[in-house]
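B., you asked whether I could sanity-check this one before it goes into the benchmark set. Here's the sequence:
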Amino acid sequence: MTDEPGGSATIGTLEKGFRIIETIEELESATLTDVADEMGLARSTVHDYLTTLCDLEYLVKTDGEYQLGLTFTRLGTSATETVQLSDTITPYLERLADATGETVWFLVEECGRAVYLGHAEGDQAIKTEHTIGGRSYLHCHAGGKAILAQLPDERVEEIIDMHGLPEITEHTITSREALFEELERIRDRNYAQNHSEQLAETRAVSAAIVVDDEVLGAISVGGPAHRLRGDRFETELPNQVMSVVNEIRINHRYS
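And here's what the prediction gave me:
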């Protein structure tokens, strides 16, 4: 093993450091023992990482517990600024949320996963596990499928090879053949639907934002299945979502 650049020890050390950061993020606040137990590492090893991360201000320690430092706020802001539409999408999401009364998300694809970057809630919105910056598989919800439908088949195959098609609920699409059939249907009608494929008893409608053949993301409206049904689910919501997406496309192209 080596500590030279590119060596396996260097890569392993870096990976372990990020795993510690992610563990603290998941736990929200954690002691040294919490992190060591969660990761199955020696306390002495974890202590060295935590001390270094605190010195670099990526973590802060209060009363023996570690939390993420605000340095991540700056980094997150900088990362978001590289995404097209990130600074203009909010009014569209809020307008769609007001019109539908449901939960609205803006998401993009990165590294074969969905990343949630914008959010608005109508007066009947339900709470979900999604958070700004959170990631999920693409194949199990309307927004992800809307994006996949606009990507070349070769890219879809790459994403499946990277992440597989895990079953999230009993309704999740888990075979390549079924997924590609679904993507063809989405292309034909220009919007995607989610029938409790990510969360039981919920549905969603989504359309991708494509400008000059570039997939910039997707807008999704979701809610409980008992409200998103019949003509509202099949016609009204798709028309509302696609109307907003078309407006975004036009305004972005000529901005």
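One thing to flag: Residues 1-9 have pLDDT under 50 and may be disordered. Otherwise nothing jumped out at me.
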